[in-house]
Amino acid sequence: MAVIDAVLDRLLDGLLSLGRLLSPLYSLFVLLQLSALVVLLLLSLRVVCLLWSHAQFTRRLQCFSKPPTQNWLMGHLGEMRSTEEGLQAVDQMVRTYSHSCSWFLGPFYSLVRLFHPDYIKPLLLAPASITVKDELFYGFLRPWLGQSLLLSNGEDWSRRRRLLTPAFHFDILKNYVKIFNHSSDIMHFKWRRLVAEGESRQDMFSHISLMTLDSLLRCTFSYNSNCQESSSEYIAAIFELSTLVIERRGRILHHWDWLYWMSPEGQRFKQACNVVHRFTRTVVQERRAQLLHQGEPESHTDTTGGEEKRKRVADFIDLLLLSKDEEGHGLTDEEIKAEADTFMFGGHDTTASGISWVLYNLSQHQDYQDRCRAEVNDLLQDRETEDLDWEDLSSLPFTTMCIKESLRLHSPVSAVTRQYTKDITVPGGRVIPQGSICLVSIYGTHHNPEIWPDPDVYNPMRFDPENSKDRSSHAFIPFSSGPRNCIGQKFAMAELRVVVALTLRRFRLTPGGVEVRRLPQLVLRAEGGLWLTLETLDTPQD
């Protein structure tokens, strides 16, 4: 017995020694188990909250018609396509539901899609204090554009809007018209060369995107990039960022930041952001130092005693550096960088899309093209130069009608989204609950047959003043509307008129001989490019 006791004692001592040896490993194992349990509980809680929220929104949005879904859980996930067929599906939805419908992207996002002026008006005119830019469609831009006017909310947005509005005053925009003329001249010189070399068929998007980038770089930074003839790291980075944002939006798993930043696409996005931010930050810092040493530039060209005195004209960066709020505070370098990056992002692609589709529509309708050309030639008759002035833009009524009809038929931006911190009531007593994502379909509104008879027909006479006077104020919203409308819309319309007018004066455009399939991305493009055939014209001075 004593022997047994001795053996047992020895075994016990051995087990205790082994336990002391294994204790750290055992503690680590327990810690891992507890961590996994906590993560599992948090995920379970997240799923429960998600399903509860989905059920609540589903119940509260019953006042809106709901298109057929795959099932209750998945909803309409995967049905919103950025293709020609996707736009045709929107056409069918508008014909079926007339004004609005609910839309569910799985249990993740609850939307109300609206496509009638009476329904979008209360949303777009809602006070900015209760209007929020949602993270589903705009959040992917934040690492690139920062807390800019496009993405900010509340009092921060109001302050930025007040500070930026003077930069888009008519007196400032007048100076930019010269830049629009110059950038158009460069593009047209290149087109003449290509036509002479036998390459008359060209993709409008590739040329016009570079031209609008060239204009914006001059207007924003007073920077001559020569980007219409040769590329640069900065230009390549802007194109890269636009492409990556589109790709991310279409991949639901990349909506989670932690997963996206570990992906190859996320790494490319960071690298492109660094290139753009480095360029903008350097320009802002250099310009601030220049203003301190040399004083303010002029906001116009001074004419005294009949002689024009050339002075450096203030560009967008100058205006932001000089802007002050009611308390005398200006924007920081980081805030200016965010606004300049936003101006570059929002100004080149949308305007390029608008110009490209105007030229496409006029290539399809030679009678309208000829009438626009005659209007431009009459305006420039007996001029020493072909340059258009700011005052000339109001003397192109039919050309402007053609531009507006193209913006209706081929809106550069297909939709804008909003969230609201309060419930919003729309016609019929329907209530959009707080927190729902409201997708205001610009495309759907512009193609709604209740508002626009024969909506797929290009007819500039829709915008004749007599035909427009009884139309709803929100039937035509290419630049959105209300307090959060596009701050740069007058800039865009001025560039559209200058480029379209000079292009029609110098070239005849005809179809490129390929089927055009629309491609709605960040802006409306065409699959494989928008190809037109160019014919050089002798201007009356020639």
UniProtKB/TrEMBL annotation:
Q: Which reaction does it catalyse?
A: testosterone + 3 reduced [NADPH--hemoprotein reductase] + 3 O2 = 17beta-estradiol + formate + 3 oxidized [NADPH--hemoprotein reductase] + 4 H2O + 4 H(+); androst-4-ene-3,17-dione + 3 reduced [NADPH--hemoprotein reductase] + 3 O2 = estrone + formate + 3 oxidized [NADPH--hemoprotein reductase] + 4 H2O + 4 H(+)
Keywords per UniProt:
Heme, Iron, Membrane, Metal-binding, Monooxygenase, Oxidoreductase, Transmembrane, Transmembrane helix
- InterPro entries, sorted: Cyt_P450 (IPR001128), Cyt_P450_CS (IPR017972), Cyt_P450_E_grp-IV (IPR002403), Cyt_P450_sf (IPR036396), Cytochrome_P450_Monoox (IPR050196)
Q: Does Transmembrane helix count among this protein's keywords?
A: yes
Give start-end of the signal peptide: none
Transmembrane feature ranges: 25-52
UniProt keyword annotation of Hydrolase present: no
Task: State what this protein does.
Answer: Catalyzes the formation of aromatic C18 estrogens from C19 androgens.
Q: Which family does it belong to?
A: Belongs to the cytochrome P450 family.
Q: What is the protein name for this chain?
A: Cytochrome P450 4F3-like isoform X2
